[in-house]
Amino acid sequence: MRRTWLVAATVLVGLTLGATQAAGEGAPAAPEIPVAGTFTYPHFGKASGVRVVGAVHAVRRVPGATAVYYSVGTATASGAQLRTNLAFQPGTHPFKIGQAAAVTVTDPVGLTAYRPLIVEGSGGLVSDTTKLTADPGRLVVVYAMLPELPASTTTVDVQLEWGVSVTNVPVEDGALEPAVDSDLVPLGEGWPALPPADVVASADPGRSTFALMSRVADTEEATTTEETTEEVSVNLAADFFFASGEWTLSAKGKAKVEALGKTIAERGATTVKVTGHTDSVPDERIGNEELSERRAQTVADLITTTVPGVTITVAGRGQSEPVASNGTDAGKAKNRRVTVDYEVAK
Question: What residues contact residue 339 under an 8 Å CB cut-off, 6+ apart?
Fold first, then answer.
């Protein structure tokens, strides 16, 4: 990913984020400032409010944690001075008032989200912004310390105040320098000094780490896949795969189950659970529970041919586990399904 650099003087005077301007001939070189992306949001999330502008500068691996550096300010033309209540959302427990804690780093590949580390009694390991003030046209750098990222994580998405985000931010090594012993540093004058290692070590990273779920439906809405870092659940819409009251796969349904089997094999799954479900309308021929089990068995048999050696358990739940109301046709359609669940090995 190409890095964007800014000349500090350009940013501080005009907030022209995203450009690089050479210093005048004979002038001292201005420090280069990394910028992964820029953002803007209105004061307190109100569309009519003064707009806050800023940039995410870096996400860095440091001993025992991950440091996020970003800056905020107001445009020169706004005439508004930057203050804490203008730029940051109010802190909520366990964070303290004035702490810049509305930071979330998301690893969309690893399906994990990270929030600022918390030290009991002290709140978050983030910049204290209670004394924040800056003239229009000047940016101030703040930081947040989050749990360590896996070595395999190379880019992340950073979400800040009022939901603004910067995506595909590279994860790099080492704190930014030079470090200034302050929680708030004017952009171009260095970077906030991070908390010492013993303070970082006193925080529980598990408290600030959250598993995410990915939910994806195909274009035909025949399958919906929900995935965490450990498990995958695939929902097969029965109306696409089977005729009413039948348990023989349609041609299109067979192709999708075969493709699913190949995916299961590629993911290295060794155990699979296939469960059939129906709506509340009674099947007069064999009953809802038997119909749901036969459909599940049909799917399981085809997966077995694609994934040799896999252990598959089959069950039919009939109408006992609805996911929607059976009072509407749309709800009944959602309840007619076969689910395929397996653990992720790779």
Answer: 233, 234, 235, 236, 273, 274, 275, 277
